[in-house]
Amino acid sequence: MVSISIIIPVHNRKSLTQNILAQLHQQTLGIDLAKITIIVVDDGSTDGTLEMIRHEFTQVQLLIGDGSLWWGGAITLGMQYSINQFNADYIVWLNDDLLLTDNFIKNLIISCDIYSNQKTIIGGLVRNKNHPNWLVYSGHLNNFPIRDIHIFNQQEDILVDFIFGNIAIIPKKVVNAIGFPDAAWLPQNGCDHEYMLRASKAGFRIVVTSKLQAFNDFNLSDLIRYMPYWMQWYLQKDWLKRWQIFQGLTQIKTGYNIWVVLRMHSKFRHKKNIKIWHYVLAYMNRIIRLLILDFLPKDYIYHRIFNYLKQEQLPQDIIHQVLELRFSGIQFDITE
Questions:
Q1: 33, 82, 105, 209 — which has fewest CB within 10 A?
Q2: Cross-strand bridge partners of residue 159
Q3: Residues 43, 9: contact at Cβ < 8 Å?
Q4: Alpha-carbon separation of residue 124 from 118, 207, 230, 234 (angstroms)
Q5: What are the residue ranges of helices labelled H in the chain?
Q6: For residues 320 and 55, what is the distance between their CA atoms, to the nearest angstrom?
Q7: Would the pTM of this model clear 0.70, i.e. be above it?
Q8: What is the per-residue pLDDT across 84-108, written as a single tens digit (0 to 9) for each?
């Protein structure tokens, strides 16, 4: 059996952390703990997470940050610890907000054994608890997300362009070839994406498998938080919350901050010497876009948002709920 390290970054989500660790404890009963190591990286939690882990899950390897690691730094610290202390064959990235299927660990071991001699990164499926056919996270293929669980009725494994860090199995040979995630360049959002692109460029395959599944409670507010920044702004009528969206342009925690925009989604993606004035221009460009949005034709904005939601292959009632936030009274044809 291959050796596996499961790395879970956490920060001030005590109940979620407790839940995921309880699931892993139950599923690893009877398994040689020398072969499966659970590493939690607590990045400065102040809600009792640290004390809870020390008291209830003594078998967990606990690494402590000061609140400045973010996701990328926490994952990198866990990976370095896994390699240096346990020489793990596989490193698993796992989010703390997941409800794992009962056979998750069993299938994790099987998946690692199946691909043990291949240059392959493996991703799992995260399904929505209230819409189980909707894949909140899986993989991207040809620039589009895989959202429908039924696509896996024909085949268990699908070769994709990249996956996200919710469930990701990284062979040690990937680390040997390309090193660790670049947390200094992308501390939070985009760090997992950049690592997958780097691995793919180095010749590693990326596969999503239906053998590894979990559920999460991804709700309407979560969905909107991951929509393009201008859509978030337009859908929000409250000016206090609009101000928070505006502030997000320069906050590490958002997926639309100007560092992520230039470092992952622009012509500068492969450059490390982006000039400061490029960031200033990107910032000003986005401010201007936000300020003119309310003056654009409502039909134009409606179709832009509607087409985005359809492209994301969201459930029809979710599309309807999003559109109702700003287009109440309009007769929607969400099947068009």
A1: 33
A2: 207
A3: yes
A4: 17, 9, 30, 33
A5: 14-27, 49-56, 70-81, 104-114, 172-178, 191-201, 220-225, 229-235, 239-247, 258-264, 276-292, 298-311, 316-324
A6: 45
A7: yes
A8: 999 999 999 999 999 999 999 999 9
